[in-house]
What we know:
- Among the domains are: 19-99 and 124-184, no CATH class; 443-612, no CATH class; 615-660, no CATH class.
- It has helices at 6-30, 44-52, 57-67, 75-83, 88-97, 124-183, 187-200, 206-221, 225-235, 245-258, 279-295, 299-306, 316-331, 340-360, 364-380, 384-391, 401-414, 418-428, 440-451, 455-468, 473-482, 486-493, 506-513, 516-537, 539-542, 544-611, 615-624; strands spanning 635-636, 642-643.
- The longest helix has 68 residues, at 544-611.
- The protein is mostly helical.
Amino acid sequence: MKRRSTNSRAKARRGWVSRWLVRGALAGALLCGPLATAAWAITKDNVIQMHKSGLPAQVIIQTIQSTGSNFNLSVDDIKALEAAGVPKEVIDAMTSSGAPAPAPEPAPEPAPEPAPAPVGSGDGVDDLERLREMEEAERRKIEEEARIREAARKAAERERERMAAEERRRVARALDAARNALEDGRYAKAAKDFGTFLAQAEEGKASTYEAQLGLADALYNLKLYANAAERYQGLLAAGPESDVFEPAFTGLRRSARVIAYNPVTLEALTNYFVGDKSRAFQDSYNYFVGKFFFDYQRYDEARTYLGEVSDKGRDYADSQYLLGLIGVQEAGDDPEGDDWARRLIGASQNFESAVGAALAADQSRIAHLGYLALARIAYSVGLYDVAIFYYRKVPYDSTSYVNALHESGWSYFLKGDTARGTGIFHTLDGPDWTNYFLPDIYLLEATVFMNNCHFEYAHDSLKRIEERYLALKQPLTRFMTEHASPEALYNAFVLDQTQPGVELPHLLRMAVISNSEFYDLYTTVTQYRREVARINTQRDGLGEELSVQLLETVASRKQEGIIALGIKINQLLQQLSDELDELEIQVTEVRIEIDEIEADQLERDIEETYRGPSEEQVEAEAQATATVFVGDKYVTWPFEGEYWSDEINNYRSDLKDVCK
C-alpha cells in the first residue's frame, strides 16, 4: 500500500474528527428524547429543535419531565420560543420547571475518552487498526442516533393514535345520542344534537356527512321541508361514491313533493355518473333531472333524461307525459310546419304510454291528463269523434273533468252536432259550475240561438255575459292598479290585505286559484309560512343557535316564493283582463249580427201579415215551445225547458230552427 504523507494523514484525521464531533452533537440533542435520563438535561434550543422535528407537544413535555430539566427562562428566551412556534403548553411546562426547587446533584462528568493516538505515530498496521476502531465507534453512534429517532417517532405515533382513538370515542358518543333521539321520534332533540356536533366537526369527514344527513332527516320529520331540502341538496356535493349520496337524493325528492323546490343549482346533478346504481335509483334520478330541465323549458336536455326512465320505473308514466308535452310544444300551432304532424304523432304515442302505465300503477291523475292531451291532439287535427272519445274517458270526479266537458262541447259543435254541443254548454251553465270562468259558453249559445232565429234567447245569453263577466272588468282593473308590485299582489290576493272597494271578484279569484302553476307556488309559500311558525314553536327544543340558522334559510326561501307567486298572480290576472277585452269585442260583433238578422226577420214578418203563416211555420213554432221530460229529476232553465241532472253528459238541446 502506498503510504500517504504525514501532512495528508493529519488533514484527513482533522476532517474525520470534525465530522465525528458534529455527529456527536446531533446525538446529544436526540438523546434528549423520551428515553433520556437526567444526565441528559436539555436546553431551550433542544426544545426548539424537537418542535421543528415534528414531535407532538405532549411528547416534548414528557421528555422535559423525564429528564428533570430545569429552565430559568428570560423574557428573551420566551420570545424566542414563541417565535419558533413552540406550543404554549410546552413553554408553560418549561417555565414551571424553572421554579425554585432543590437543585439536583450535578451528574458526574463522563470520563473523557482517550484521545486517539495520532495516526502515523506508529507503524502502518497500528494506524489502520486505530482507524477501524474510530470507524466502528462512529457506526455505533450513528446506529444509536437512528434508534433514538425511531423511538421518538414511535412515541409520537402512539400519541397520535391515542388522540385519534379518543376523538373517535367522542364522535361515537355524540352521534349515538343524536341517532337514538332520531330513532325514538324525538326529532327536535335529534336536530339539536346533530347541530351541536356539526358546529365542531371538520368538513369532509364521514362522521360529518352522517351528522348532516341525520340533521336533514330530523328537519324533514319536523316538517321543516325547506331546511331539509337545503341540507339534502348540500350532501349531494359529496358525490355518488359517498355513503350519503343515495339517501340524500331520496330525501330531496321527498321534500320536493311537498314544496316546489327546484333551484338552478340542481343542474350540478348532471356532473354525476349513477350508472352503477340500482335501476330503481337511476330511474328516479333521471326523472328528477329531466323534470328540472322541463321546468326551465330546456327540452333537449329534458328529453335526454326523461327518455332514460325504464318502463318498470315508478316515474315512467310521468316521464312519458312530460315527453308528450315536449312534443306538443315543439310542434307549435302551424299545421303547415315541416314537423308538425310527425311531432304530434310522437306526442300521441307518449301520451298513450303514459295512460297505460298510469292505469297499471293506479295513478289516476296522470291517466286523466293523458286522456285530455290525446283529445286535444285529435281536436287540433279535426278528428272530433276521436277527441270526444277521449274527452268522455275523463270521469266526473276528476280535476280535469270540467275542461274535458267544456272542450267536448266545442267538438260536438264543430262536427255539426249543435244539439249535443249546446246541451253541454247549457249543462256548464248549471249550479255545479258557477265557480268556473267559462265565458265562451254564453257566446256560443248566443250564436246558436241567433242562427236558429231565437233572438230573445240570443239577447239573454249576451246579457248574461255582460252581467256575469264584462261587469268584472272595472274591479279587475282597479285591483291590479292598486296592487302593482308582486309583494303587494301577494298580500292582497293571498293574505286578503286590501282596501275596501278594491277587492277582487270571487269568479276571477277562482279562475286564478284553479291554475296548476299558481297552486304549486301557493302551497310552497304556505309551507314556508308554516315552517317559520313551527321553528318558533320548537325554539327551546332546537336551541337558539340552530333556530336562528333555520329561520334565516326559510326566510330567504319564503321571500323568493312570495315574489314568484306575485308574478304568477299578475300574469294570470293580465290574461283574464285580455280575455275580457276580447270577449267585449265579440259580444259587440254578435249583437250587431243579431240586430241585422232580426231586422231581416222583421221584414219577412211584415210580408207574412199580408199572406198569413204556412202550415210548416205553425208546426215549427209549436215544436219550438216544447220541453223535454225524462224521469222525475230535472232542472228548469230560463231557456228550452228542462234536462235531467243525473245524465248531464247525455243532455241534448231541444232547440228547433224557426227561421223563415
